[in-house]
Design goal:
The chain has about 80 residues and is mainly β. It contains no helices and 5 strands.
């Protein structure tokens, strides 16, 4: 089974070895078709690497590390 991967922005780095990453998707409205922004905030493990707020990171799904943490940071992404 393939692991889910997402690119998101770090919005919080106040926890030890954990960052909160915001994943933003655009979904069309069911009736009117206007694109709406949906934001999901996921906790991801960093394995000791330091990431700052505002960094674009690639995260992938792993087995649960804690109650809320099911993702780990693979690395930084370059801004496009």
């Amino acid at each position: 089974m393939a692991k889910k991967t997402f690119i998101g922005k770090v919005v919080s780095d106040k926890m030890t070895n954990t960052v909160v990453v915001a994943i933003e998707t655009k979904v069309p409205h069911a009736r009117y078709g206007k694109l709406l922004k949906h934001t999901k905030r996921l906790k991801a493990g960093t394995d000791g690497t330091v990431y700052a707020v505002g960094d674009l990171v690639l995260i992938e799904e792993t087995k649960p590390m804690s109650k809320d943490k099911n993702f780990r940071v693979v690395g930084k992404e370059s801004k496009k």
